């Protein structure tokens, strides 16, 4: 199933239990990584847990087509659900993925990450047509989504930002989510011990390069 923009945030908070697999893809590498991690954390708290997180690539599955089904059906040695991450995922894994979705065993979440898959991609089309899999596209952030990200992230550090400073920062941080978060965290670190919790244009000039141009 293809997630529309309105439903993505809902699924990121609590994924519908009918979905055995989630495909997160798109040109915005930082947003792909962020959303994939959000889905994974719904199942496991520690994404580096070797007992509850299996890491595969498309090449691993191509070399051993049964590997995906085996990992999806595996039971954690320490209890709890598992996440099977395939990164990068590719069209070549569709037969293995279909075998799992046609006859799911176990309760693992299969989490697929990929780059920009066009509409002809066999993987993208298969997931969008499947009733028990979800496809989530990650395109470049626009000014509105970046403004939301900026203010939410700064609020977590007890910081606010003037409107002019926000517009100036957004014009400089580019559209990739990973780059944007890095710049925002750098600004928060810069103001960490400052009693003045309001960010102004001068603060932005002092801390950020022009990532949009880069």
Share of helical residues:
40-55%
Coarse shape = elongated
Strand content: 5-15%
Low-confidence stretches: none
* pLDDT averaged residue by residue: 93
Main sheet properties: 5 strands, parallel
What does this structure look like?
With 214 residues, this protein is an alpha/beta fold. It has ten helices and seven strands. β3 (83-86), α5 (94-102) and β4 form a beta-alpha-beta unit. The two termini are 35 Å apart.
Blueprint (SSEs and pairs):
Blueprint (H helix, E strand, L loop, with lengths): L4 H9 L7 E5 L3 H13 L11 E4 L1 H6 L3 H7 L9 E4 L7 H9 L6 E6 L7 H8 L3 E5 L5 H13 L4 E2 L1 H11 L3 H14 L7 E2 L1 H7 L7
Parallel strand pairs: 1-4, 1-5, 2-3, 3-4, 6-7
Helix pairs in contact: 4-5, 7-8, 7-9, 8-10
Brief descriptors of the model:
214 residues; alpha/beta; five-stranded parallel beta sheet; two-stranded parallel ribbon; 7 strands; 13% strand; elongated
Summary?
With 214 residues, this protein is of the alpha/beta class. Helices cover 45% and strands 13% of the residues. The strands form 2 sheets. Strands 2-3-4-1-5 form a 5-stranded parallel sheet, sandwiched between helices. A two-stranded parallel ribbon has the order 6-7.
